[in-house]
């Protein structure tokens, strides 16, 4: 069974890239903002991994990541960050929140996929199942 990934980024291009690249081996659900992501999670959807931009249009920087990493319901889900913020700040915040891995924009999708497969313990499968919440 494919691992489910929730990818949260306000950039339509990044969401499309993540769906396209990751959708070959994973079930990918994308959200354009924190409220949409939290609504999807509130419907008892539990992803195997969450990829999140710390800068979302409807929240303060790092707010959603703070919420997810401190939540009893969601803190066991591995988090990855894709950020355009300062690299040193991103590293410090990722260490603080126990982020599995982080990438600076622009990022290499192949290296991201390798990190995701390590984090989720995924083996390569074929086919594509992607969903968009936007």
Description:
- A six-stranded parallel sheet has the order 5-4-3-1-2-6, sandwiched between helices.
- It has 134 residues and is α/β, with parallel strands linked by helices.
- It has one domain (4-122): Response regulator (Rossmann fold, 3-Layer(aba) Sandwich).
- The protein has five helices and six strands.
- 38% of the residues lie in helices and 20% in strands.
- Strand 3, helix 3 and strand 4 form a beta-alpha-beta unit.
Essential attributes:
alpha/beta, Rossmann fold, 6-stranded parallel sheet, 5 helices, 6 strands
Concise overview:
With 134 residues, the chain is α/β, with parallel strands linked by helices. It has helices at 12-22, 34-42, 63-70, 87-97, 109-120; strands at 4-8, 27-31, 49-52, 79-83, 101-104, 129-132.
What's the structural blueprint in terms of helices and strands?
Elements: E1 4-8, H1 12-22, E2 27-31, H2 34-42, E3 49-52, H3 63-70, E4 79-83, H4 87-97, E5 101-104, H5 109-120, E6 129-132
Parallel strand pairs: 1-2, 1-3, 2-6, 3-4, 4-5
